[in-house]
Design goal:
By secondary structure, the protein is an alpha/beta fold. The chain contains nine helices and eight strands. The chain has an eight-stranded parallel beta sheet. Helix 8 crosses helix 9. It is globular, with a radius of gyration of 17 Å. Bound molecules: zinc ion.
């Protein structure tokens, strides 16, 4: 068992070879991929083609927050939840790129945390150079029962501990294989039960695929690196993080491969 908890396989970057890329993922030992969606129906429609191995989320990325329309987008997200979305997101705050004004990022993020609170679904959070605001909103939503994952984690130990303390999950991507990676302290700090793994494909291909388009089939390279840091085996970390993904997203899947 191995689950990619975050892949943009509905993106147009996969238009040329989506089925072949997914086949490579199954051949590489993946059992399931969570397709990160937007407020379009593409992720939903893709997941419907193979519901046992694909599920989907619905949300608005902080880069797109300038286009966020609370009434329209909340309605779309709620409709996708009715259609079976397993999480809200990805949403969050990105003060590194600042592709959208921060006030609008905060609005869009808060709206989606509200939807998570109302629907009881988990939330997939993107956060970069926005630790104070992220902590504040994440703690407030946790007090309303929202569980989230800080995806593609590159933040500080302080942010990681804040998330761990409120029961949120932390997910690592191929960045953890880069020479420039310096957050092994966080990799070992995350409790077994709160750890997820992801590719974030088509972005951030792990070593030795760096520079290529990323795809779910490359996930084992990241898992191998994380397993080394945590003093476990690739096999055990695959099974552990798959069980965590099944619990987090409440996937209707068996929790063991036997
Ligand atoms: Zn993403």
């Amino acid at each position: 068992m191995l689950i990619d908890s975050h892949a943009h396989v509905a993106s147009e970057k996969f238009d040329g070879d989506r089925n072949a890329a997914l086949q490579r993922a199954w051949d590489a030992g993946l059992s399931h991929v969570v397709v990160i969606g937007e407020t379009s129906v593409a992720a939903r429609d893709l997941a419907r083609t193979d519901p046992r191995r694909l599920s989907f989320t619905a949300g608005v990325h902080p880069h797109e927050a300038h286009q966020f329309d609370a009434t329209r987008d909340s309605a779309l997200i709620h409709a996708l939840v009715t259609d079976g979305a397993v999480a809200i997101g990805e949403c969050g705050l990105d003060y590194y790129y600042d592709h959208s004004p921060r006030a609008q990022q905060l609005d869009a993020f808060q709206s989606q945390l509200d939807i998570a609170a109302v629907t009881g679904l988990p939330v997939v959070v993107h956060t970069r150079l926005a630790e104070d605001d992220t902590q504040r909103l994440m703690r407030a939503s946790a007090a309303r029962g929202v569980v989230g994952v800080l995806h593609c984690f590159t933040g500080s130990v302080v942010l990681a501990h804040a998330a761990i303390e409120i029961g949120w999950y932390i997910s690592f991507s191929g960045i953890a294989t880069f020479k420039t990676w310096e957050r092994d302290d966080v990799v070992v700090a995350v409790p077994d039960a709160q750890l997820l793994v992801e590719t974030d494909s088509p972005y951030l291909a792990p070593v030795p695929h760096r520079g290529k388009r990323n795809e779910p089939a490359f996930l084992p390279d990241t898992v191998a690196r994380l397993a080394t840091v945590r003093g476990t085996t690739t096999q055990e970390l695959s099974e552990l993080t798959a069980r965590n993904a099944i619990r987090f997203f409440r996937l209707d899947l068996p929790t063991s491969s036997n």
